[in-house]
Amino acid sequence: xxxxxxxxxxxxxxxxxxxxxxxxxxxxxxxxxxxxxxxxxxxxxxxxxxxxxxxxxxxxxxxxxxxxxxxxxxxxxxxxxxxxxxxxxxxxxxxxxxxxxxxxxxxxxxxxxxxxxxxxxxxxxxxxxxxxxxxxxxxxxxxxxxxxxxxxxxxxxxxxxxxxxxxxxxxxxxxxxxxxxxxxxxxxxxxxxxxxxxxxxxxxxxxxxxxxxxxxxxxxxxxxxxxxxxxxxxx
Length: 235
Known about the structure:
- The chain has one domain (13-147, 194-234).
- It is built from six helices and twelve strands.
- By secondary structure, the chain is an alpha+beta fold.
- The chain has helices spanning 19-24, 44-50, 62-66, 72-89, 155-165, 171-179; strands spanning 13-16, 33-36, 56-59, 96-101, 129-136, 141-143, 148-150, 186-188, 195-196, 202-206, 218-220, 230-234.
């Protein structure tokens, strides 16, 4: 597995030692991300190589994975993929395993890009968290909350958005920002140091929902090199 390092002396992230600890540790006192750091066995590269997928995002189900002609090491990797999904489903979660060979980009991003390559937070109307694990390919990136600024709060960007909106900076404008997800995206401040979520690690991160007691975790999809494919679990 590719080595990675969590930000040092950063109280918003906590390492845990088991799935049970991952799912039961509450987000409070500013804590907004939990990482179950793992070194997984198995050949995930072989699994990806055996998949007959093209450009874009392909969702992988159990039948497809079990039908792949792989070696013993590939079978170990598949068993781990299925076991992670089983653990999440047992706790009323709905995990999806994707093979990603390119994400859609904003065709006309305007003042604020809103695709997954932009640092952003996830949002929901009810209490929920996001779960992530990258098994193969470049891993997700994170950004400390104190090293980020909402793009809509940058004066020059806000002025451009106001011009696009064609109105006043009032409650209706703020609704416009929310409806277009502009207010979910962040810029890294100068000297910020984004960090990798690492390969094989299962993360639970805080989302933005009404009444959430902690700030949401800021993250983004990584820029992949041509031909690279990701194997990503998300819930």
